[in-house]
């Protein structure tokens, strides 16, 4: 019965697919065993959320292919402290949004801190504040273990020591002020008149919030870019939001100026706008805030304020400053919006014009949707959203500059290839200048069996699968690998993801490196060893493979200890 079951199972056959799925996941970096406990599964899933998320836009911009993303995930697992959170992870996104909400909540509560003594807050506001503070503390602590992107070196820093030092040098003091300063106000003097310590503490909190505003705006820009494809709508929403924040801050400061100047909580000078507006009526928080907001908005946007004249000198100075900032900001606002609308109406980018021509061509030829998508993806990877005449630019350079440029273009390839790495810079620059680069999409055939060629190929970035004449998948070649010495006689090479490949004619490669006999001996010996390995693996696969099911069928499962290849 058991033998009948085995015979009914079809033998394993190779499928023309790569183990790297087209939709990147982190399963390869952190697999979950099937018999693991529920608590362990939860911990592993939480750890996965701290790794790089391949689906994020910034991940696709920073890493050119899935293989490099997978390597980044493994780098974090092997080298980083277990507490470290990758800056392109899902957990980092969640923490960013928590920070966004807590900053905005504290900033919008500034009128309460300024206009109402903290010891006289309503009960519901005290409860909100008590719930708000632990969340702020949690976010502050996570900044000690969140990795960051060093744009000067174009690298992602996951060293916890560097992360802690950077945070202590930058935003730690500001975050501590925002977190604890209102507690210092609450243990201060009685609430019946304005004190110097309240003034200083409130001013410091405002400075800290303004110092953190840049981080808040960056998170907003990332959200708009993710949700809205239209750049025009994103810019309009961004400017509207930023203008509201700016007017809100000036509104609070407009009241504080009078309080700072008079050191009074209720009895303001008769020439103050507060006294002129209320004329002895009871001061209410909402009345003061909205009256101050209207006054600030009028001066900010250059509209006449009709309720009263500003006669108090400190208020005159402050509102003059508000008017000056408002004029400059309004000019910038109109210029930026006109630029955006003008750019959308008349695109100046050569890349946009070129893609427009490609779309017209595809529409005229009535190409199917799948080919259109592949064509646009090809140009996006090939041109990197920039279009220029590279040949004309390179021809205008001196020979030395050309060499330096070629070396820079292929730096990653040279570092990963053991043969190119040992060549002198002079020989290497000549060789690379004679190479050509090509971008292949997933499933593009680079070399086919039975189609002779004269090229040697070098993988700059990406993954290429090796197949024999029986369509058995034998190997994956990654960044820095070279292939093609068989000249198309034995193997197919197929791109498994978007890959950038350099190629040069075999005769040119040999002519350029003809004096390096040891290099060629090593190169040919390595190729023969690889060819022998592929032949052995192909023979095993043709005979059914070396899977446990195949050996169980042959009765050889427990005969010899054997290392099996993972295909």
Plain-language structure description:
With 567 residues, the protein is of the alpha+beta class. Among the domains are: 19-79, no CATH class; 350-383; 399-554, Jelly Rolls (Sandwich), CATH 2.60.120.10. It has 24 helices and ten strands. The chain has a four-stranded antiparallel beta sheet with strand order 3-10-5-8. The protein has a four-stranded antiparallel beta sheet with strand order 4-9-6-7, with helices on one face. Strand 6 and strand 7 (473-477) form a beta hairpin. The longest helix is centred in the middle third of the chain and has 33 residues, at 313-345. The chain is elongated and about 95 Å long. Mean pLDDT is 77; it is low at 1-27 and 189-194.
Averaging pLDDT over every residue, what do you get? 77
Structural class estimated from helices and strands: alpha+beta
- Assign the CATH topology of the domain at 399-554: Jelly Rolls
The CATH homologous superfamily of the domain at 399-554 corresponds to Jelly Rolls
Main β-sheet, in a few words?
Answer: 4 strands, antiparallel
Number of strands: 10
| Total of helices | 24
Separation, N- and C-terminal Cα atoms: 30 Å
Secondary structure: helix percent: 55-70%
- The assigned CATH architecture of the domain at 399-554 is Sandwich
Low-pLDDT segments, ≥5 res: 1-27, 189-194
- The rounded Rg comes to 33 Å
* Strand residue percentage: 5-15%
């Amino acid at each position: 019965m058991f033998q009948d079951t085995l015979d009914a199972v079809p033998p394993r056959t190779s499928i023309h697919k790569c183990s790297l799925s087209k939709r990147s996941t982190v399963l390869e970096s952190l697999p979950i065993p099937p018999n693991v406990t529920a608590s362990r599964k939860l911990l592993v899933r939480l750890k996965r959320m701290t790794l790089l998320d391949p689906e994020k836009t910034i991940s696709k911009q920073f890493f050119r292919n899935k293989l490099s993303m997978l390597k980044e995930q493994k780098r974090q697992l092997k080298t980083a402290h277990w507490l470290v959170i990758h800056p392109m992870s899902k957990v980092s996104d969640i923490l960013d949004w928590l920070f966004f909400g807590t900053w905005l909540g504290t900033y919008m509560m500034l009128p309460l801190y300024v206009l109402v003594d903290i010891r006289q807050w309503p009960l519901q506001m005290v409860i909100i504040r008590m719930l708000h503070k632990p969340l702020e503390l949690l976010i502050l602590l996570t900044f000690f273990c969140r990795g960051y992107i060093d744009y000067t070196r174009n690298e992602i820093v996951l060293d916890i020591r560097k992360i802690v030092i950077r945070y202590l040098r930058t935003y730690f003091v500001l975050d501590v002020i925002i977190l604890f300063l209102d507690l210092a106000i609450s243990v201060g003097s009685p609430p019946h008149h304005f004190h110097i310590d309240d003034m200083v503490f409130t001013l410091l909190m405002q400075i800290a919030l303004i110092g953190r505003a840049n981080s808040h705006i960056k998170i907003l820009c990332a959200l708009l870019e993710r949700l809205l494809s239209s750049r025009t709508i994103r810019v309009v929403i961004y400017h509207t939001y930023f203008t509201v924040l700016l007017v809100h801050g000036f509104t609070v400061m407009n009241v504080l100026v009078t309080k700072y100047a008079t050191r009074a909580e209720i009895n303001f000078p008769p020439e103050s706008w507060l006294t002129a507006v209320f004329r002895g009526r009871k001061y209410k928080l909402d009345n003061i805030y909205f009256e101050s907001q209207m006054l600030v908005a009028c001066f900010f946007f250059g509209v006449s304020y009709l309720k009263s004249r500003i006669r108090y000198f400190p208020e005159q100075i402050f509102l003059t400053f508000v008017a000056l900032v408002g004029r400059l900001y309004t000019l910038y606002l109109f210029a930026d919006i006109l630029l955006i609308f003008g750019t959308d109406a008349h695109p100046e980018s050569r890349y946009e014009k070129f893609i427009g021509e490609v779309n017209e061509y595809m529409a005229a030829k009535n190409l199917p949707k799948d080919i259109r998508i592949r064509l646009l993806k090809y140009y996006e990877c090939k041109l990197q959203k920039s279009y220029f005449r590279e040949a004309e630019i390179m021809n205008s350079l001196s020979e030395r500059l050309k060499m330096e440029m070629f070396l820079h273009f292929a730096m990653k390839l040279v570092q990963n290839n053991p043969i190119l790495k040992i060549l002198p810079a002079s020989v290497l620059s000549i060789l690379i200048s004679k190479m050509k680069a090509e971008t292949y999409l997933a499933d593009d055939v680079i070399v086919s069996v039975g189609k002779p060629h004269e090229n040697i190929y070098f993988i700059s970035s990406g993954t290429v699968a090796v197949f024999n004449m029986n369509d058995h998948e034998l190997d994956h070649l990654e960044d820095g690998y070279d292939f093609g010495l068989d000249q198309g006689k034995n193997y197919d090479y197929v791109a498994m993801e978007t890959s950038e490949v350099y190629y040069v004619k075999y005769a040119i490669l040999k002519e350029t490196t003809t004096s390096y006999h040891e290099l060629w001996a090593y190169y040919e010996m390595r190729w023969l060893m690889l060819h022998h390995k592929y032949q052995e693996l192909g023979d095993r696969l043709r005979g059914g493979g070396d899977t446990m099911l195949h050996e169980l069928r042959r009765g050889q499962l427990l005969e010899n200890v054997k290392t099996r290849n993972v295909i």
